[in-house]
Amino acid sequence: MSLGGALLVAGTTSDAGKSVLVAGLCRWLARQGVRVAPFKAQNMSNNSVVTADGGEIGRAQAVQAAAAGLEPSVRFNPVLLKPGSDRSSQVVVLGKALGQVSALSYRQRKLELAAIVASTLDGLRREHDVVVCEGAGSPTEINLRANDIANMGLARAANLPVLVVGDIDRGGVFAHLFGTLALLDAADQALVSGFVINKFRGDPALLAPGLDQITELTGRPVLGVLPWREELWLDAEDSLSYTADGVVGRPAPPAGEQWLRVAVVRLPRISNATDVEALACEPGVSVRFVTEPSRVADADLVLLPGSKSTVDDLEWLRRTGLAEAVARHAAKGLPLAGICGGFQMLGARITDRVESAAGEVDGLGLLDLDIEFRERKTLDRPVGTAFGEAVHGYEIHHGAVVRSAEKPLLELDNGEGEGALTDNVAGTHWHGLFENDAFRAKFLRWAAERSGRHGFAVAGGVSFASQRAAQLDLLGDLVADNLDTDAVMRLIERGAPGGMRTIPPGA
């Protein structure tokens, strides 16, 4: 099959369903033997992965690549912005960090980045039958439209038909769809070819009149209504999806007599929050994000996740009383673990003249090691052993261990150690470590023993990879069963239909 087509999935808001719809479209097309690739010109997220070609991309694009049956590549997300504060972000281009930018200074780089985005997309379209592009945020951020490279700017440059997806679970979906179209200029509106409604619960017959009316008002068809599916929760695109005191996933009943309660500290600049999802896949493991000390006091296992601003988030821990609560937890001999930035916080001292320029800062002192931040970011996909089990993961960090008196948690294949392990405190720079099934089972037993949860039992046989694949298959099923796939394929093959109605401003 040789289609050579592409389309763009835009959203009425962030988290409207763009990422999952793109993943579902990729899965649906791949099942039919179509060579399909995902593409997101510009992503803003601290959830990222390391690719086989040695770069860094947004995690959502890695998941979409898996849906398409592809290895993640830096070409699927040529521009990645990693917020370190409300006013600045690290900019990553084709997988490599190029420094910090403010919102204003980033605008000045848009022409250069637009050329990179265009050439990357062109290359993917030459090599694949279909490229399914994902927009960023909303296409109607009118204050940003002039320099847009991810939404209608991309659609105009590449002549892409656009599907707009809206989240009905938030309410106001028809206003969102109509308003999104109405705020675009005539040339942008000409590319908007249809709507998709996401997360619908209830009787479709009650929704049908609204679908007819939005089509009459806009001249655009609703090409599908995706139902709410509780099972879909893995690999959230944005850390904002993880709310304070929110439960992760849908915990299954325990295999033994007791639950294991995991409190994950919801840092202000949390990164790779998805690391804990593999724990939540285990029956009897209740994983919750927390932002106050009382929630730590009730936990069996406390976990400090990654951070894009380690020193700033460490100061937040102290200011909120969470640092003291974490220290009390560890002092009782209860299990504590840190990942990447969270691991760095557990050490004795952090020297950071790169990320925060704070210089020397005291860590929590729960591990006898020192961290120093370096200009060059570590990007790696290492392998090794931990708790006697073969493991793999990925590393994304500027901080490095420069002194350690602790036993390493991991032994790398080159014989070197990584991370740290005491009787009840564990830490590592590796992301994705809990996705190793045999290691995860032993880690949970280690935590249960130290928390006194002797009635907790690891169920055994839980495959995180299989659960992720099942979710991707479910997304493919949702597209096949609930979208007008013939109409979608026509858009891919022929582009946006001509002669569509333009909604005048103020209509």
UniProtKB/TrEMBL annotation:
It comes from Allokutzneria albata (Kibdelosporangium albatum). Catalyzes amidations at positions B, D, E, and G on adenosylcobyrinic A,C-diamide. NH(2) groups are provided by glutamine, and one molecule of ATP is hydrogenolyzed for each amidation. PROSITE patterns: GATASE_COBBQ, GATASE_TYPE_1. NCBIfam families: cobQ (TIGR00313), PRK00784.1 (NF001989). Residues 8-233 form the CobQ/CobB/MinD/ParA nucleotide binding domain. The lineage of its organism: Bacteria, Bacillati, Actinomycetota, Actinomycetes, Pseudonocardiales. Residues 261-438 form the CobB/CobQ-like glutamine amidotransferase domain. The active site is at C340, H431. GO terms for molecular function: ABC-type vitamin B12 transporter activity; catalytic activity. This is Cobyric acid synthase. GO terms for biological process: cobalamin biosynthetic process. Pfam families: CbiA, GATase_3. HAMAP family: CobQ.
